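User: Teach me something about this protein's shape.
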Amino acid sequence: MIKVTSLNGDNLCVKGRFGYGFIQSEDRLDKPLIRKGGKLKEASWEEAISLVAKGFKEIKERYGGESIGLFSGARYTNEEIYALQRLARAVLGTNNLDNSSLGEELISSFGSPASTNSWEELSSAELILAVGSIPEEDHLAFLKIREALGRGGRLIAISPKEDELTKLSLLWLRPEEGGQTLLINGLLKTIIKFGWQDEQFIAQRTEGYEDLEEMVEGYSFKELGETTGVKVRRIKEVAENYVKIKSAMIVCSADRGREGLLASLANLALLSGKLGQPGGGIIVLHNQNNAQGAYDLGLSPDFYPGYQRIDDPEVQSK
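Assistant: First, the predicted structure itself:
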């Protein structure tokens, strides 16, 4: 039995509390399977590992290390992830490796895929902008949002589907499927149009503002309303609520198929000067439990462990 520490406020999500039975499931594989004669047959670990090692060696000798690619889930421990990227780079001689989580967009904005704030700050936020579905049984975020509401906080939900979270919200924007990124860009355009951006923060802490301004200028409010299915006055209402409350936090589920959304949300936090404020950043709910560790330990084609860029000559010389 593992003690739950104060990091999560002595709480686990529902699946974490009751979903451990799969460990003893009869459906779990506990022996390697090797295909022989068109059928998968049980084998020893020694036989399976030798077969894989032989295959890697033959491919590397014939085509070179860069002909090999490794792709991993992000549910492994930091030690396992570090060992995997070492196998790829130091043994196989390839940098073709990646993981199944979404973190690249935040890395380009913040230098890290990590959330910028703690659970405690989420539970005390004055305003929460929840983007995407956050299942009640999956994440501690749902519990922390309820705590914030119990303390008088307000919730704005942006989701194409009705769920338990949208039922708790003060405002619910319901964009068409696939329209969430465009809707967030509509918030950016609205903030810039009405001059609600934090000019001092932008000048001192960001770069590329002119590019963002040019990008949102390409949208018309009519197009935003028609494409997202959300009335322009509602977009303005949400933008005004978000920028005018100091402790306003974004919570977003990082799901595949919504590329560009995290980058737009990062721009929203930066444009309004929320980043670095207590209770004013972004919490990203990755779809796998060690998504951050996967990037921290270098399971990426762009970074070595510790976010050292692979194209940095100084790093390469180490």
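Now, about its shape. The radius of gyration is 23 Å. The chain has a mean pLDDT of 88. If you'd like, I can walk through any region in more detail.
User: That's plenty for now, thanks!
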